[in-house]
Design a protein that fits this description.
Radius of gyration: 19 Å
CATH superfamily: B-lactam Antibiotic, Isopenicillin N Synthase, Chain
CATH topology: Jelly Rolls
Helix content: 25-40%
Order of helices and strands: HEHHEHHEEEHEHEEEEEHEEEEEH
Number of domains: 1
Strand content: 15-25%
CATH architecture: Sandwich
Shape: globular
Structural class: alpha+beta
Length: about 350
């Protein structure tokens, strides 16, 4: 087994399979290996128009549910259009994220360095500290529901380094929250389940809203072989990721073990399913591998890459169990906190799996 961040550059996922809580037979390099990894230039991630669900007829809602479910069952990824979130909001978010990581000194960010609350490490992640197994070339900042003024006692400075950012990013969080139930209801419809089964669980549920800043790549980091973010599967039910301007997102096609370079249209949202979803759907909807590699166009090495994924969870005290409409369950019920932290101890160290009293 590879140990240490530098050796993680050459590691494969199966070096860490003891942490997996769902079946993941695929083997892949955590970081793109030039002249080794193969690419699938023909596979197209399906585009699904969610306006059919939001404002369409019953027939159109069923059509969207089928399109979305089939895409996720096939590869665990879909591109969502018609969601109603203004592209200008995402463009402004890119500027705000650049401000946070370029204009606010590191010394001012460090008091917010990540700490575990519940299942999730929240706060600021310095560059190369996203995981203990690979020196990811990214800085990040994770905000969960408690970091937003969404009701109840709240102090902005407990979570945000300067005023004004919370109110801006709350607009995106609330816009994305409007999509959670339509997506989950569509998935359940596709699987033949009660479409409202998760309505209560996902109303005002927890989430991880992450601001990612991938700085320009130095010649030293380029030569090291490190990637921008290691290959992984998300832990959650699903992730909403607005399309990025700078290339780099790669998705593993498990059918041929080739990587797909995913470049979604501006303003669209990339949707992918995670480990929670694979668990409750009895492996029907896979938690699909993806990573962020350095741009194939080396000119773009000098341009920062910015993204803002929002991972959708259930609260820690919920129980994850195979959906009642699916036969022959492969997995026993498990608490969300145990499931989540057993997996993420892969990234944060074995002690992370110990439940907080």
């Amino acid at each position: 087994m590879s140990t240490g961040k530098d050796s993680g550059i050459k590691a494969v996922n199966q070096d860490f399979n003891k942490y997996d809580q769902v079946n993941k037979p695929q083997e892949y390099n955590l970081v793109e290996q030039e002249n080794v990894d193969q690419f699938d230039e023909d596979y197209k991630i399906k585009v699904c128009d969610i306006s059919k669900f939001l404002s369409g007829s019953e027939a159109e809602k069923k059509e969207f549910a089928h399109d979305l479910g089939a895409a996720l069952e096939s590869i665990g990824f879909a591109i969502i259009t018609g969601h109603g979130v203004a592209v200008e909001l995402y463009q402004d978010a890119q500027k705000k994220i650049a401000e946070i990581f370029e204009d606010i000194p590191v010394e001012e960010r460090m008091p917010y360095k990540y700490e575990r609350e519940g299942s999730v490490n929240q706060g600021y992640f310095p560059i190369k500290e996203t995981t203990v197994i690979h020196p990811d070339l990214v800085e990040g900042w994770v905000f969960c529901r408690r970091a937003f003024n969404l009701g109840g006692p709240y102090t902005e400075s407990d979570y945000w380094p300067r005023p004004g950012y919370e109110s801006f990013f709350r607009k995106i969080v609330q816009a994305h929250e409007e999509l959670i139930l339509p997506i989950m209801q569509s998935i359940l419809t596709y699987l033949g389940c009660d479409p409202n089964l998760y309505d209560e669980k996902l109303t005002e549920t927890n989430f991880g809203f992450r601001l990612n800043y991938y700085p320009p790549i130095s010649s030293e980091d380029d030569a090291s072989g490190a990637g921008r973010m290691l290959g992984h599967e998300d832990v959650d039910l699903f992730t909403l990721l607005p399309a990025q301007e700078v290339e780099g997102l790669q998705v593993l096609n498990r059918e041929n073990n080739k990587w797909i370079r995913l470049n979604a249209p501006p303003g669209s949202i990339i949707l992918n399913t995670g480990d929670y979803m694979q668990r409750i759907t009895n492996d029907r909807l896979p938690s699909t591998t993806h990573r962020v590699s350095k741009p194939s166009n080396k000119v773009l090495n000098q341009k920062p890459r910015i993204s803002l994924p929002m991972a959708i969870y259930v609260w820690e005290d919920e129980i994850l169990e195979v959906l009642p409409c699916l036969e022959n369950p492969k997995y026993p019920p498990v608490s969300a906190v145990k499931f989540h932290t057993n997996i993420t101890s892969k990234y944060y160290g074995d002690d992370y799996a110990k439940e907080v009293k």
